[in-house]
Amino acid sequence: LRKVTPEEAWSGRKPNLAHLKIFGCLAMVHVASGQRKKWDPKSEERIFVGYCETSKGYRTVDRKTKKM
Predict the structure, then answer these.
(1) CB under 8 Å, gap of 24 or more: what pairs does 61-64 form?
(2) Residue 29: inside a domain, yes or no?
(3) What is the pLDDT of residues 13-64, one digit of tens each?
(4) What contacts 41, CB < 8 A, 6 or more positions away?
């Protein structure tokens, strides 16, 4: 048996894993312009907790309020 991933066996090339993150790591999340004032920061620190099941995105938790 060759030690390859299903993706590698099917496509013939190694998959790109650059988008994978470590659970619990610090994540900087963009704050939309409609949700901030002119001098407010454009991003906020959150905790990475997983991957979104319905879109290409990450699930994060607010460090202060503990809300997703």
Answers:
(1) none
(2) yes
(3) 888 888 888 899 999 999 999 999 999 999 999 999 999 889 888 999 998 8
(4) 31
